[in-house]
Amino acid sequence: MESRPKEEANKSSRIPETWTQPPRDILKVNCDGAFFAETKTGSWGFVIRGHNGHAVVAGSGSLRAVHNADCAEAQACIVALQATSSHGMGKIILGNWLNEHDECTFAR
Asked: Where is the composition biased (Polar residues) (predicted)?
């Protein structure tokens, strides 16, 4: 499976995004954060997939106090990396939903 369209809340301005398949021995970690300026709250989510596109681990949660959108994004990455560590995942590619070209590869 090479790519999947990403569903967005606002269907009138939906832009298809694709998921890039990692090499066979590497897991792909995608994470995203959300920030709500009015309440200074947010949320985070991540999914870890194998080369076949199947989810191995996923998670999401709320952030009760967030300074800005970058902090929410950072928290999503932190939680995703903690999950890879706690599950003993060695070789990963870390990307995010909006910037597939900003990937980093890590190996233990």
From this structure: 12-21
Q: Answer for the pair 70, 5: CB distance below 8 angstroms, yes or no.
A: no
Q: What is the pLDDT of residue 50?
A: 93
Three-state secondary structure string covering 34-99: EEECCCCEEEEEEEEECCCCCEEEEEEEEECCCCCHHHHHHHHHHHHHHHHHHCCCCCEEEEECCC
- How many other C-beta atoms lie within 10 A of the C-beta of residue 29? 26
User: Which CATH number goes with the domain that contains 39?
Assistant: 3.30.420.10
2 occurs within a structural domain: no
Q: Which domain holds residue 70?
A: 23-106
